[in-house]
Write a structure and sequence with these properties.
Blueprint lengths: L1 H12 L10 H7 L9 H11 L12 H7 L4 H15 L3 H34 L4 E6 L2 E6 L8 E5 L7 E13 L1 H4 L5 E2 L17 E2 L4 E13 L5 H4 L13 H31 L4 H15 L4 H18 L2 E3 L3 H6 L4 E5 L10 E6 L4 E4 L10 E3 L2 E3 L5 H12 L4 E5 L2 E5 L2 H12 L4 H7 L2 E5 L7 E7 L5 E7 L1 H7 E6 L2 E4 L2 H13 L3 E9 L9 H5 L3 E10 L4 H12 L3 E5 L4 H11 L6 E3 H6 L2 H10 L2 E3 L3 H13 L4 E5 L5 H6 L2 E5 L5 H6 L2 E3 L4 H41 L8 H21 L21 H29 L3 H22 L17 H19 L1 H7 L6 H27 L5 H7 L1
Parallel strand pairs: 9-23, 9-26, 19-22, 23-25, 24-25, 26-27, 27-28
Antiparallel strand pairs: 1-2, 1-3, 3-7, 4-5, 4-6, 4-7, 8-28, 10-11, 10-22, 11-12, 12-13, 14-15, 16-17, 17-18, 18-21, 19-20, 21-22
The chain binds adenosine-5'-triphosphate.
Family: Belongs to the cation transport ATPase (P-type) (TC 3.A.3) family. Type IIA subfamily.
Subcellular location: Cell membrane
Membrane topology: Multi-pass membrane protein
Length: 917
Amino acid sequence: MDDGREATTRTEGETARCWHAEPADRVAEQLGSGGQGLDVEEAAARLESHGPNELRPPERAGPVVRFLRHFHNVLIYILIAAAAGTALLGHWVDTGVILAVVLINTLIGFFQEGKAERALDAIRQMLSPQAVVVRGGERREVDAAQIVPGDVVFLQAGDKVPADLRLFNAKNLRIDEAVLTGESVPVEKGTEAVDAAADLGDRRGMAYSGTLVTFGRGLGVVVATGTETEVGRISQMLGEVDSLQTPLIRQTEQFGRWLAAIIVVVAAFTFAFGYWVRSYPLDEMFLAAVSLAVSTIPEGLPAILTIALAIGVQKMARRNAIIRRLPAVETLGSVSTICSDKTGTLTRNEMTVATLVSRQRRVRVDGVGYAPHGGFCEGHEEVFPDRDPVFHQALLCALLCNDAEHFERDGEWRLQGDPTEGSLVVAARKAGYDPSAETERRPRLDVIPFESDHKYMATLHSDHHGWQGIFLKGSPERLLELCTHEQTADGPQPLDRGWWETAMDDVAARGERLLALAMQEVDPHQQELTYEQVEGGGFTLLGLVGIIDPPREEAIAAVARAQRAGIRVKMITGDHLATARAIGQQLGIGQAEAVSGHEIDAMDGPTLQETVRRVDIFARTTPEHKLRLVQALQADGGICAMTGDGVNDAPALKRADVGVAMGNKGTEAAKEASEMVLADDNFASITHAVEEGRAVYDNIRKAILHMLPTNAGQSLTIMMAILMGLALPLTPVQVLWVNMVTSVTLAMALAFEPGEPGVMERPPRDPNAPLLSGFMLWRIPFVALLLWLGTFGHFVWMEEVVGASDELARTVAINTLVAGQAFYLLNLRLIYDPIWRGWALFRSRAMWIAIGVLILLQLAFTYAPVMHTLFGTTPIGPEDWARILLFGLAVFVIVELEKAVVRRLPGRQPASAATTG
Ligand code: ATP
């Protein structure tokens, strides 16, 4: 491979070369790739010298900058001001503790953010694009990162171009180059060289990395990879860094800033009141004001929210739903309609031909799966299709107008390619046809590949003896439009359309997928097949094929689950109406009513909006209909998830609230337009993702419900003490201990919580409902009041009744507050439902671990001498603990009672509570 190496070094030095101005065959020759592509060793050697075909990940700020960024926060500024104040007053221990807490807070934020980002990166890696290349004379699918200059790459509609290519074959190839040129209309591609000075958008013979193939097919040789490509050179195109911010997190951060502003005012007011009205000493009042400010701020909240989201994303990935954009996690929780494709998502995509119909006969095909075993029967009589002239032509058409490969390996029959086409090869084999022998007898000259938009595939063949013809297969409705005749044992007859329509309905009513087969003889010198020629019609219909594709078991269960969760499931399919209806029935989707793409075309916006409210099955649709359906659903106020795989699905996927692309059969274009990708193409994974989405949203609400009452309870305690002229029940450093250590430890457990038992038995959340709903605005002050009563009451009782020292009374007060927090955490396992429902209390490991850790922390806080110095605590006795635990238990019982009352309020049944509340 000396040639190749020479080419390699040459390309390295000549990245800016005008490949577009050179003839394609010369380029291929120079890069050392003949018709066979590179051989495997050469490809490996070039990978070594050129490096992987990847763009450098977008520049991330260095660790120091990222660490410092965590200090840029109003709350931290307040803490630093507090530290400065205490230092001025000579309270060095307080200064040290406050600064330590600031440091710990930023460190936690820094590490957790790093962890969450790494987790998301790992998930994104799961989506690395693939490309089809020729290596060593064989077509194979490789990771796009493995592509090297000189590789020959196949392109087809829906692909993202994996590297810069010089095209040497293009059939109706159109590419959307908007990422490079800003031009949103796809450009027509060819193979010819253009002027060296041509603009990027005018270089017809080139396909550039990162652009999207929207139509047709092509073949090109790689001229540049990775950072050498055009897109690699334009650095701002490297794709924006997905930040960890979601609308919800932004909302809470904004809330935090407002809170901080209010706090500063209230603290200033309290300071003035205490100093001038109550005549507290200046330094004590300053500390009180600092305590107040620090106590009200939920310092750990944003970190907990980010962690809850990141954990949700990881859990979804484990269940085959890969999130591409973080806000989708929140949206998933409020999805009210899921629109799903049928084939492969709701059904198994394991196709078996079950029926063959010609104008004169209808036969049943036996045998399931890919093994070519099984016979053909008409009633009870065995039939040999190869001896029937019409079936013979039909099976030839099925076999030759086909790109699937069917082969035996390790004693097992396998399929490569489209399963619909594969089933036809299996059927032809059952009838005794040998695919390779037939292909040799009638080689293919040209092809128009299948696309959902035109719903047919056509191939041009010649038989070495002067015969030449087009085989056509596709959806029967489409083929009926293109046929003028039907084949019979006595030769072609004029088409009896009505007869065929009845036959189609019969087969489809059993839930079989329909295909029609047709042919046309053509002029023996024709070399190329055009859309115009096929769509000009004049074909002879050979027969119909009925294919079974059973529903997935797990999809049946998942549809039922989604429906119980108040989510409408709609099936959108390209299949026949009757087939769709029959499969819908097996899956439990829709009543008998189904609407076809033609009918949708005839509807205006309001009519369609009314129709989607009623109908769940849409058949004979094209991808364009999906977009209209999404728009109609959204106009009706729905939150809509939509699945898709093809390049033409992209607009609907983009428009949907949650676009869901198929990971296996989906095109890059579809994945790019989606929020979520299904690793297993399975409908059940969508419901799992919705379930996790709901759980994440619940957990976020729980974290807020847990943190805010603690803050409010502490502030109340301090304010009341000042108003009543008492000693401070909590010092600033003690408040920090509660906010930064106990609150965060406990609330962290909520981020790991599994979903509530009934999470999929209640209707979807109203996306417009504010985060702090009516119920939360009640629950937060309610619990705050409970915590205040316990903490403040216990403190006052210790000081006034027992006559304890400030240190002892404070230590008891803090432990009371923490016990209240811990027991309230248990209540929060379920927001509204009684905690014993579904043994929920014992199902949460994270919660019990957090409480265990908390007990150790509080024991250290109370008994470790170093803590005494730092936090001014002192050991407390067993009877103090008894009262503390009693209070905790009381909080637990009272909140459970509150839940019982709330559940009984009109319009707040347990199932609907979580959505409206
Ligand atoms: P989904 O239900 O997921 O929308 P679908 O396969 O039903 O998928 P399309 O892929 O748009 O929808 O197919 C529409 C129709 O086109 C099929 O019902 C079938 O008649 C025909 N068809 C499908 N695959 C091929 C193919 N490879 N060649 C020719 N015709 C095909």
